[in-house]
Amino acid sequence: MKKYEDLAKTIIKDVGGQENVNSLTHCITRLRFKLKNENIAKTDEIKQLDGVVTVMKSAGQYQVVIGNAVGDVFDTIMSMGLLPNSVASSGDNNQTAAADSENAGDGKKKNLFNAFIDLISGIFTPILGLLCATGMIKGFNAMFVAFGLYNNTSGNYQILNMIGDSFFYFLPIFLGYSSAKKFNLNPFIGMTIAASMVYPTIAQIMNGRVLYTLFSGTPFSSPVHITFLGIPVILMTYSSSVIPIILATYFASKVEKFFNRIIPTVVKMFIVPCFTLLITVPITFIVIGPVATWAGRLLGDGIFSIYHVSPLIAGLLLGGLWQVLVIFGLHWGISAIAFNNIAVLKYDPLLAFTFPASFAQTGVVLSMLIKLKIKN
C-alpha cells in the first residue's frame, strides 16, 4: 500500500485535515467523507490528484471518487493513522459518536431525500459485494445447466446453488447486521431479530391449523395460526425480505437506547439485549412485519401501475437518467424499490431498464480505450 501513501496524506490534508472529518466510509469506488465544513475542502486540488477520478457532493457526503483502488487508499489512511478509528469504518457506515455532529460546522441540514439516500446506501453498501458475488454464482450455475454441463439434480448444481442462494434466502440476517450498524444498535441483536424472522419452524406453523382469519375479504386478509399473550400473530415468509428487518432494527435501536439509560451498568451486557429482544421480536411478528410487508406490496403495486401505463416511457426515463443518478449516488432509492419488488413479487423490471445504460457506458469506455491510448 506504500504507493498510496502520498495520495492518502494529500486527500486528508486537502479535505481540511482530520479535525474537519466527522466520519469516513468507502463503497466500491468512493471515499465517502462527512465533513464539518465542506467549504474549506480544496475540491479543485483534489480533483487534480493522480489517482482521483473526481469529487462529488451528494446526500450530505463529500465523495472522493477513486475507482477500484478505493479499498487500498482507505486502508492506507487507516494504517498511517491519518484518521482516528472512531471516525472511520470500512464500508459498514457505522455511525459513531463523532458522526453525530455531522450537521455541525457549516450549519447545513440534510433534507429528507438526502437522509433517505444516505440511509439506504449505508445499509446496502456493505453487502453489495456479496450480492454481486452470489448473484454471479447463481447465474453461472443456471448457465452451466443450460449448456448441458450438468443437470439440476447433480451434486455440482446443488452445492453451487447453496452458495448462491444462501445469501438471498438469509438476506434479512445480513441486513439485520448492516442496518443495526447504521442505527447504532448492537449488530448481533439485529442479526438475532432477523434470525428469528427466518426461523425454520415458521414454515411448519404456517402449514398447520388456522385458528381464524383477520381482515377477511380485504387485500390484507391473513390467516392466524398462533397467538402471543392472546394477541393474534400474522405469520409471513420473511426470507429474502428487505423492509421488515430494516424497520425492526430501527425500532430495536430505540428500545435498546431506552434500556441502556435505565439498566445498571453491572448487568447491562445481558439484560439490555434480553429486554430488547423480548420486546422487539414479538412486536415485529405482531405489527412491524405484517405492516411492512403490506406496505411493500402496495409500493410494488404502485410502481408497477406506472410501469404498466407505458413501459417504453418508463424505460426511457429510468435508463436515460440512471447514470446521472449513479454519479450523484442517488440510485439507491431505485435499488431499494427493486430489491423490495424481487422480495415481494419475485421479479423486477426496474433494474432491467438500467442495463442498456450500463452496456452503453461499457461501449464508450472501450471506444475511449482504443482511440485515446492514454495509459492513465
From TrEMBL:
Active site: C27 (phosphocysteine intermediate)
TM region(s), chain numbering: 116-137, 157-176, 188-206, 226-250, 270-292, 312-338, 350-370
Domain PTS EIIC type-1: 118-376
Organism (species): Oenococcus alcoholitolerans
InterPro entries in the cross-refs: Glu_permease_IIB (IPR036878), PTrfase_EIIB_Cys (IPR018113), PTS_EIIC (IPR003352), PTS_EIIC_1 (IPR013013), PTS_IIB_1 (IPR001996), PTS_Sugar-Specific_Components (IPR050558)
CDD domains for the chain: PTS_IIB_glc (cd00212)
N-terminal signal peptide: none
Keywords: Cell membrane, Kinase, Membrane, Phosphotransferase system, Sugar transport, Transferase, Transmembrane, Transmembrane helix, Transport
PROSITE patterns in the cross-refs: PTS_EIIB_TYPE_1, PTS_EIIB_TYPE_1_CYS, PTS_EIIC_TYPE_1
Domain PTS EIIB type-1: 5-87
Subcellular location: Cell membrane
Membrane topology: Multi-pass membrane protein
Name of the protein this chain belongs to: PTS beta-glucoside transporter subunit IIABC
Domain of life: Bacteria
Coiled coil segments of this chain: none
Gene3D superfamilies reported in the protein's UniProt record: Glucose permease domain IIB
